[in-house]
Each structure stands twice: as C-alpha cells, then as structure tokens.
Amino acid sequence: MARKIITQVIDDITGDMVPDGLAETIRFSINDVDYSIDLGPESARQFREALAPYTENAERQTGTKRSSIAPRRSTARVDPAQLRAIRDWARANGYEVSDRGRIPAQVIDAYEAAH
C-alpha cells in the first residue's frame, strides 16, 4: 500500500488555500514575543506594505536574538539525605511535595535561596 501526504497551506488572513510554492511563512517579533504567520502572495504584500513606515524608520537589530530555550538543570544525583531535607523544609514552608519522585525546580530554588 502506498501513502500520499498532501500539505495544503491556508492563508491565515483570508482563509483561502494558497497554491503550491506560493505560500510564505513570515516570522516577526514585537515586544520580545515571536510570531509566525502563513500568507499567500497578496496578503504577504499587504503585510509588508503595512509595516513599511515602521521598518523604513527603525534600526535593524542583528545578532541579538536570545535563545528561548531555558538552560538545562544538572541531572547529577543528589544525596538521599539532602532530598529528605528539601522535602521536609518544603512541607514545613507550605509546599506540596510527594514522598518519592522529582522535586519541582521552584521548590529546590526556594530551598537553596533559604539556605
């Protein structure tokens, strides 16, 4: 059996299907929030035209993009006595933690800040 997957792009503004090869995904940021929108040729032209007064007078920023991925926390094993101490402290300070399993990062952060 053969399977054929067909991707159709819909213009996010007009709701019309965009012919193959003519769709454009435009990415932009405002107030540190990243957006993307799929547009057909006419909507893309209108989008650029609407932003032209701003982009023509704005200062272009390059190389300043910050990663939106949070740094990974170390997964090193922690001493069981330390984990018990964190759980005891958390319960005494109003945090709900289970007897077993992962301790939420916010609880560990609060414990470390208090000690």
UniProtKB/TrEMBL annotation:
Residues 53-77 are annotated as: Disordered. Residues 79-114 form the Lsr2 DNA-binding domain. InterPro entries: E3-bd_dom_sf, Lsr2-like_dimerization, Lsr2_dim_dom, Lsr2_DNA-bd. Keywords: DNA-binding. Residues 1-61 form the Lsr2 dimerization domain. One of its GO terms (molecular function) is DNA binding. This is Lsr2 family protein. It comes from Candidatus Avipropionibacterium avicola.
